[in-house]
């Protein structure tokens, strides 16, 4: 199917050609005809599926044919998003697609002066893309009214709830006119999200699910390295050094300080990188994102919240430097790569403290994540400072022998493995029972590297 078959107006088709879309993505193919019939829609889709165009294009088409004229300080479409980055990104899409029409779009979000935003709303807009807090602010200041709303879009609903926006959303809903078309998008549909969707959508709404929940896009290769917390930065650097094809890399950190630390370590190692998180100013975040998009920096380190707004094409690799607490977050993270049919790779670092998170992710994925190349771990071990190398462990072990209980001393002597080569065990052997592994020469070193033991 191509866009011509979707009954969109010429100015929209021209804009689609200009942005370079040759054919609709599955969600666009399914959602556009439903929305053009003025039905409500519940879309279950991850970022990267083309969901923005799936709702923006039919809304623009309907705005063009409805012929209603925007009133001052009013908007005809309201798109609610949880973060400023996402709001900017969606507003950009509306502007791109409406380039050859007279449709006017505005974008409002917190953390910046509201003066230019109020000015943009003065004569009314056709599409208002907003974050909930700033919208309520400007409504309270009577800079915008929702009484003319024809279309209401709640995007990234699960994230909205995660971020505690439920009360703001309910407040905004109470201000919307009863007669309107509703669009609800969420990557996951736990029961509280289903309840919210039902409270917004009209009874005959349609549901479209493009990628089943927890099924990652097929073109993403996933793997996990079991590595100690302290060795994660060494592993990241090593992987980046030996894989030049990792050219546009997004690294996820659980904390803001962690993100700063990772970025600093990489920069010191000569790998161009920047960190984005909530403590960075909007300008700094935009600058880092811009540099990443234009490939002036190779690595962008982000926290989950800051990353919500990231829409960068061709991300080659996603690193889960820290595993996320929720499997849903894992899905969102890895969905940043392998977009628009391109191949991507998601690499997770799992420290012993994160086993629980890994298990939850694997359960949700219904598969065990394959392990990364163990020879890289060996290389890192070799590069560790002398005192932390396994020989020292052996020395400590022999010292400890002095305190062995008489019972233990009676046991038959084990083969001396002191000078055995370390970590020579091939990958298939990794599947052996724990007991066997424990007795294997050098296995303690491997466990130590993984951070299983101090
Ligand atoms: P979204 O899921 O809306 O965030 O879109 C993800 C990416 O896919 C964005 O970079 C879009 O520009 C791109 N995209 C959306 N629709 C299409 C399409 N039909 N063909 C190619 N790329 C698309």
Main attributes of the structure:
single chain, about 450 residues, alpha/beta, 2 domains, seven-stranded parallel β-sheet, 20 helices, 13 strands, globular, binds adenosine monophosphate
Strand order in the sheet with the most strands: 3-4-2-5-6-1-7
Say what the CATH topology of the largest domain is: Rossmann fold
Model regions low in confidence, pLDDT < 50 over at least 5 residues: 389-397, 399-442
CATH class category name of the largest domain = Alpha Beta
What is the CATH-assigned architecture of the largest domain?
3-Layer(aba) Sandwich
Give the fraction of residues assigned to helices. Answer: 40-55%
Strand % is: 5-15%
Provide an overview of this structure:
This protein has 454 residues and is an alpha/beta fold. The protein folds into 2 domains: 3-209, Rossmann fold (3-Layer(aba) Sandwich); 220-383, P-loop containing nucleotide triphosphate hydrolases (Rossmann fold, 3-Layer(aba) Sandwich). 42% of the residues lie in helices and 14% in strands. It is built from 20 helices and 13 strands. The protein has helices spanning 10-19, 26-36, 51-66, 84-97, 115-121, 132-140, 157-162, 166-174, 191-200, 232-242, 256-268, 282-293, 304-307, 327-334, 355-365, 374-383, 390-400, 406-410, 434-439, 443-449; strands at 41-44, 75-80, 105-108, 125-130, 151-154, 181-186, 206-209, 220-226, 249-252, 273-276, 299-302, 317-320, 344-350. It has a 7-stranded parallel β-sheet, sandwiched between helices. The protein has a 6-stranded parallel β-sheet with strand order 8-13-12-9-11-10, with helices on both faces. α2 runs parallel beside α3 and α3 packs across α4. Residues 389-397 and 399-442 have low confidence and may be disordered. The structure holds adenosine monophosphate.
């Amino acid at each position: 199917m191509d866009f011509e078959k979707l009954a969109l107006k010429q100015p929209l088709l021209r804009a689609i050609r200009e942005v370079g879309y040759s054919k609709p993505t599955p969600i666009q193919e399914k959602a556009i005809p439903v929305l053009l019939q003025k039905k409500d829609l519940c879309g279950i889709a991850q970022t990267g599926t083309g969901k923005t165009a799936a709702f923006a294009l039919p809304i623009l088409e309907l705005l063009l044919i409805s012929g209603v004229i925007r009133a001052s300080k009013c908007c005809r479409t309201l798109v609610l998003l949880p973060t400023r980055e996402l709001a900017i990104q969606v507003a950009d899409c509306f502007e791109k697609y409406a380039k050859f029409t007279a449709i006017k779009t505005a974008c409002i979000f917190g953390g910046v002066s509201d003066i230019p935003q109020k000015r943009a709303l003065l004569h009314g807009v056709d599409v208002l893309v907003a974050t909930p807090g700033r919208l309520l602010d400007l409504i309270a200041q009577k800079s915008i009214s929702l009484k003319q709303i024809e279309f209401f879009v709640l995007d990234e609903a699960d994230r909205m709830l995660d971020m505690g926006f439920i009360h703001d959303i309910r407040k905004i809903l109470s201000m919307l006119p009863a007669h309107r078309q509703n669009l609800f998008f969420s990557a996951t549909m736990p029961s509280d999200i289903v309840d919210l969707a039902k409270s917004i959508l009209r009874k005959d709404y349609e549901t479209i699910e493009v990628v089943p929940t927890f099924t990652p896009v097929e073109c993403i290769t996933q793997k996990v390295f079991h590595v100690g917390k302290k060795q994660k930065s060494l592993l990241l650097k090593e992987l980046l050094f030996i894989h030049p094809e990792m050219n546009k890399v997004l690294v996820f950190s659980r904390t803001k300080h962690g993100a700063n630390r990772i970025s600093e370590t990489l920069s010191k190692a000569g790998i161009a990188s920047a960190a984005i998180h909530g403590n960075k100013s909007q300008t700094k975040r935009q600058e880092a994102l811009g540099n990443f998009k234009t490939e002036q920096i190779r690595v962008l380190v982000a926290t989950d919240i800051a990353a919500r707004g990231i829409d960068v094409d061709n991300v080659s690799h996603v690193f889960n430097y820290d595993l996320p607490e929720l499997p849903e977050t894992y899905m969102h993270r890895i969905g940043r790569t392998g977009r628009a049919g391109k191949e991507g790779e998601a690499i997770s670092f799992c420290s012993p403290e994160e086993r629980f998170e890994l298990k939850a992710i694997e359960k949700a994925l219904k598969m065990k994540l394959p392990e990364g190349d163990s020879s890289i771990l060996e290389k890192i071990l070799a590069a560790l400072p002398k005192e932390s190398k396994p020989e020292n462990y052996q020395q400590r072990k022999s010292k400890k022998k002095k305190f062995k209980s008489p019972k233990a001393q009676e046991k038959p002597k084990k083969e001396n493995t002191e000078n055995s080569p370390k970590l020579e065990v091939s990958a298939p052997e990794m599947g052996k029972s724990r007991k066997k592994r424990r007795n294997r020469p050098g296995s303690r070193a491997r466990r130590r590297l993984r951070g299983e033991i101090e």
